[in-house]
Amino acid sequence: MASKLIIKSHHPLRHRARLGLLLVALLALAWGVFEYGFSRAGYDNSSLHQERDQLREQLDRQQEENKQLRARIAMLERAAQVDKQAYATVEAAQKQSQDEMLELKEEVAFYRGIVSPSETASGLNIPSFTVTNIGDEGAYRFKLVLTQVKSNVRVVKGYARVIFEGVKDGAQVQLSLKEVSGGALDKLKLRFKYFQNNEGEIVFPKGFLPSRVLVEVVPSGKGATRLKKTFDWSDIIS
Questions:
Q1: In Å, how far are 86, 133, 181, 200 from 139, measured between CA atoms?
Q2: I need a surface site. Which of 114, 150, 210, 227 has the fewest CB within 10 A?
Q3: Nearest-angstrom CA–CA distance, 92 and 41
């Protein structure tokens, strides 16, 4: 069998041209992809910047609103404090006014007894003995009022003795004015024509429960008569 001879032409320039065109096409495609990606990235980046700016503006507005709200709260708190102080002042003034009115009523009743002999027993009298708690445990302020109602009034001289009865450690005891005043008071000196107020502070020993107060008035002078009166603690405490 006779062999055939195949002859192929070889064009190196054409082959190189094809490779060059293919490379250019690939580069163009790559560049297009790059430009597309860059443009998309630029678009997304711009959107993010815009959203960030909006959030910043919103945050600034909220911070300003919070600042205004804090200022408003501070103003309301100050106003509430002022109202509270004003209320306390008014309440204190009202209580003081009520106390003064009560005291005036008591004084009116007291002086009415002095100027109206028909309503009060003639002679020396012990119209009242009162005690007021002054805050500390067992501490009180007392007030003893003495009067004299006579057609021919003479100056009363002498002294008054005060005894406090009560229970301590289960036993009945009596305490003198000297014992409960720390020695500051003993016998109350008397010198008056129509009336005399005697006041002072006392402190009971711990555990002492008062029940009664005994008052004895001892006038000086010939023929003077002693006067005694007992007050229940529940009737005189305020």
A1: 31, 6, 10, 11
A2: 150
A3: 75
Query: By three-state DSSP, how is residue 51 classified?
Result: helix
How far apart CA 78 and CA 87 sit, in angstroms, is 14
The predicted-structure confidence for 14-40, as pLDDT tens digits, reads as follows 667 777 777 777 777 777 766 666 665
Whole-number Cα distances in Å, 223 to 218, 226, 236: 11, 10, 31
* Distant-in-sequence, close-in-space partners of 226: CB < 8 Å, separation ≥ 6: 216, 217, 218, 219
Three-point CA angle 119, 124, 128, nearest 5°: 70
Whole-model pTM over 0.90: no
Report which secondary-structure segment, H or E, holds 230.
strand 227-232
The full length of the chain comes to: 238
State which fold the 120-236 domain adopts. Answer: Immunoglobulin-like (2.60.40)
Residue boundaries of the structural domains of the chain: 17-115, 120-236
The helix (run of H) or strand (run of E) holding residue 174 is strand 171-176
How far, in Å, CA of 100 to CA of 106, rounded?
10
For residue 39, which amino acid is it?
A: S
Nearest C-alpha neighbor of 143 from the set 156, 161, 130, 124: 130
